[in-house]
Amino acid sequence: MLRIALGGISHESNTFNPIHTGLEDFEIIRGENLLKLKVSKFLLDAGVDIIPTIYARALPSGMIKYDAYIRMRDELIGGLREARKVDGVCLILHGAMEIEKIGDGESDLVEAVREAVGEDPIISASLDLHGNISPRLLENADILTAYRTAPHIDIEETRIRAARLLIESLRNKLKPRSVMVKPPVLLPGELVVTDVEPALSLYSQLRKIDGMEGILSSSILVGMAWADSPDASASIIVTASNDRYEDKALYEACRLAEDYWRLREEFHYEVDVGSIEETIEMAESLSETPIFISDSGDNVTAGAAGDLAIFVEHLLSRRVKGAVVGGIIDPIAVKYCRDAGVGSNVRIEIGGRLDNVNGYPVEVRGKVMKLTERGAILRSNGVDILLTSRRMAWMSLESFEAFGVNPRDYRIVVVKLGYLTPDFRRIAAKSIMALSPGFTNQILNQLEYRKVKRPLYPLDKEFLWKPPCRES
């Protein structure tokens, strides 16, 4: 019976967010609980003996504190060493994990995994398509395969694909080799939605490549735009079944990279965009409801702080009625509302405490409408403001339901996202995106990059590039 170790550390790190991520921010799944994951069920159904280590995950945020990472890494590696001999390792990673003092987290982790298990076991890893991949990672991981959808609806499918390819390689005695080509393009994920052209046609090529003789998997990674890292850019990764097909894999990677580069100026937003004022004006002009507006600069799901109240300020100044803002993290404001009690009229400052680079506290006069386990609802002149006592991602209807709120009851729904998640897409009459300030500013030229490799589009535009196997 094959013995496969399972684990990983997954985090999307936003280096522009100065608030570092600690151990307390992670959910760590250990031992028997790791066997409840869908990928574990797949491995068990395939007749594999799983060696569980740990799987740690946290909401996207600032880079991980050094000591926190070391503790998680050491626990994972300790589990591998206790297992002694394994045939393979199946890892759940992201691809844009940045560690204080270290930098590229995935490469450091997989190097440690390789040292622990030796040269013979095959290491297979699943990745987010917003990963910034280093050549160092390919030196130790044999199989790398990434999500193919944004918004991500194939997370479990990708993890299972990584596990399936690992099992097939072990049982067929393959020696997989992954190659990578990195076109010098770094785009916000909102410009590369995979069911919209030109990304739709690009990603549709992957299944065809996967079906080629000698090719196990192919991936297009857009990169994480809000990580100032030397490896921040798009990546094309193709995994061959052995070194005999490595040149073929490189050829296909170069071809995809060339297409990606050629199309760099054609990627576009799938929705109408504008300034905060312009998007509110657009929403007010429409009769359908609800209209969702993404506060893209303060997108928690890409590592922003989530406490900018600039949108609230604009809604109130325009005297907008029937709007809800979900949500603003401010435990101080939540406590103030709790102390005041439901029905109380209050005058408080909200937001701008975590991200005081792009914003500031905004004074609001309103009425405490409800107190919940997660926070408070403050109503001010027809705008309901959902205040939270902890940082959270607004990705589903459940986020609103936890406050007893139904977004369908409002004309305008403001969420701290970039592109809408499938849950919100199903109910939105229209989606609009505000190019707002914050640690996930869509206008990359307004951010201060110091570590990325230049030239890099769109920070630089007047330069030529060809993939390595197309150079003359």
Task: Please name the defining characteristics of this protein.
472 residues; alpha/beta; 13 helices; 6-stranded mixed sheet; globular; 2 domains
Notes on the protein architecture:
With 472 residues, the chain is an alpha/beta fold. The protein has 13 helices and 20 strands. The N and C termini lie far apart (49 Å). The model has no long low-confidence stretch (mean pLDDT 97).
Biggest sheet features: 9 strands, mixed
Provide the gyration radius in Å. 23 Å
Shape: globular
Could you estimate the helical fraction of the residues in percent?
25-40%
Average pLDDT across residues? 97
The helix tally amounts to 13
**How many structural domains does the protein architecture include?**
2
Strand-residue proportion: 15-25%
How many E strands? 20
Question: What's the arrangement of strands in the largest beta sheet?
Answer: 12-20-13-19-14-18-17-16-15
Are there runs of 5+ residues with pLDDT below 50, and where?
none
Judged by helices, strands and strand pairing, the structural class is alpha/beta
How widely separated are the two ends? 49 Å
